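Lab notebook: predicted structure, single chain.

Context: the supervisor wants predicted structures on file for every construct in the current expression panel, including those that have not yet been purified. This is the next one on the list. No modifications to the sequence; it matches the entry in the shared construct table.
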Amino acid sequence: MQNFLVLPMDERPCTYNFPKQLGEMAGAKIYIPPREILGNLEKIANYKELSDWVLNNAGKVAGMVISTDTLLYGGLIPSRRIPATFEEISEKLLIFNKLKKLFPNLVIYVCTTIMRISNSNENQEEKEYWNKFGELIYKYSSLMDKLKIFSDNDYETYNLERILEPATNAVQISELKEQIPTDTLKDYILGRFRNFKINILLTELLKEELIDYLAVCADDSSQHGFNVTEKRILKKIPDKIHSLKNKINIYPGADEAISVLLARMINKSVSFVPKFYARYSKPGEGSSLITMYEGVSIRETLESQVSSVGGVLVNSLAMADAILYIHTSENGQEDQYLNTLFNKNIIPVPDTIIKGDINNIEGELNKLVVLVDLAYANGADNYFMNELSVKIDLKKLLSYSAWNTAGNSLGTALAHASIRKLT
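Prediction complete. Output recorded below exactly as produced.
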């Protein structure tokens, strides 16, 4: 097995430990920077330290997976906060020219994020003003996109005036505008424009073959908003430039992406294409459920995550390497963690679904089964898993995942399952 380099989004276990452990499971040596030089909730990583580390280790590996949130902004959370200009950030991208010049055969996968728009006034991971205006900015963003107050062309030409002073008689927009200070909204939009410009520039690097694959992850998204506008514009790029079709993926996710891209790189290095057969708790309906924090159906997220890991979905069980069993609730997700935190009732998954899933999984254990528990966001269906553990030895599952968002859970399970299948 070849050696690979990973520059993660930050030092959290899900972004730091998971890819390292996956690579080592496959028998690869993983070069990953010391935690102390990475960014976190309070610290911005130093570009010079990071770029020196990457360049010093690039000659030891066959490929690398790079989070540009870390490399360019100092971390996922700093990418939403730092005041640096587009010019200051974009200059850092020259490292990719240097890497390809020094190591022409080096395979480079890059992960970037579309900046999230949190729907709460919690500012722990946002700019300071979010504790007063976060919910209002979220609503403004959602309505501006939903009501089509501006065009995609306005946005991709960075028409600030159309966003700050919208030409509309919509009462809701006017009321929100009165509550959000213009300087605050302007600062927020300019920060979004900067990061969006960088993501557009990354597609140029992909076209120039300075990077080999680009994952653009929509972090904590919904069905409408400035972030959805950005995703929509970015999705048009491979339609216009057909050479990029199989080199770029734009989809919901973030924290799982480095693990997924590393699994893709390992799969590609041994010419392995993992094949998954998907089954849902509610056949014909489960795939269309819209998940929290993503704004798209489970099926759309699944297709994107399978593609990113270098796999395919198959329609025949006989063709599959593994069954991907997706446990869902009756009518969409609730946030298990937040409901528990605020003493809200959690609607249980109906017994008919739980019993059906248990019977189906128990009957398929002669095959490789990957279980992704999407009944809730931010946690497992504990009752279901307790009941399942009575019926089967959970260690017989090829993989299991239930955490944070559907994209996080699906991507992690697919990466883990493909590596386990290889080993």
